[in-house]
Amino acid sequence: GGFIALSQPLLPRNLARVLNLANGSISISGATKTVSRDEFEKHSVELDERSILLSINGTIGNLALYQGEGIILGKSAAYINSGTRINRLFLYHFLRSEIVRIYFSSELTGTTIHNLSLKSIRNTPTLVPPLAEQVAIAKFVSNKDSEFELAIRRTNRSISLLSEYRTALISAAVTGKIDVRDVGV
Asked: For the segment 44-84, what is each residue's pLDDT rounded down to a tens digit?
């Protein structure tokens, strides 16, 4: 289980597994399992622009900001609705923090497949600065995340290009297209 998702309003819903929660969003593909409309209506909960989705079974702590996807939650996922006193993006970043991950780890049950209880989520110690400060913090962290993601993409691209260059250089040396006999190491 994980999420049940709707790809189009009148079609059966798709099951979006917890593995589909990454980088703050839900990924639904053609391989996603489906359930009937009756199942969807029986198990759906009200999600809105305040909702954050959290994996609570197996892979713990993957998060996504709900963006209007037609989904219902399976037993491997929970949702948190931010209230009027807490900014959703601030809460999202707070839930991603190391201190929350440590807390969640201390609350896990199960030996083979870990589980995080809804009670543990409800009891998560939460820092709530004034709303204006939350917005500023969330904006700052989001901007830093974007900078890090760009640096990671650039680094991965550089690694890929260097790997291609290395392969081409070895190939050229082996086939005699370049002379490496006098190259010092």
From this structure: 788 889 999 998 988 888 899 998 887 777 778 889 999 88
CA dihedral 83→128→90→86, nearest 10 degrees, is 20
Cβ neighbours of 100 (radius 10 Å) = 17
Could you tell me if 38 and 26 are in contact, meaning their C-beta atoms sit under 8 angstroms apart? no
Cβ(52)–Cβ(43) under 8 Å?
no
Helices 98-107 and 88-96: crossing angle in degrees, nearest 10, is 70
Across the strands, what pairs with 70? 6
Does the pTM exceed 0.90? no
CB-CB neighbours of 55 under 10 Å: 22
Encode 78-91: b = buried (16+ Cβ within 10 Å), e = exposed: bbbbbeeebbbbbb
- For residue 130 the two structure tokens come to 């004034």
What torsion, rounded to 10 degrees, do the Cα atoms 177, 179, 184, 185 define?
30
pLDDT digits (tens, 9 = 90+) for 145-167: 889 989 999 999 999 999 999 99
End-to-end Cα spacing for the chain: 55
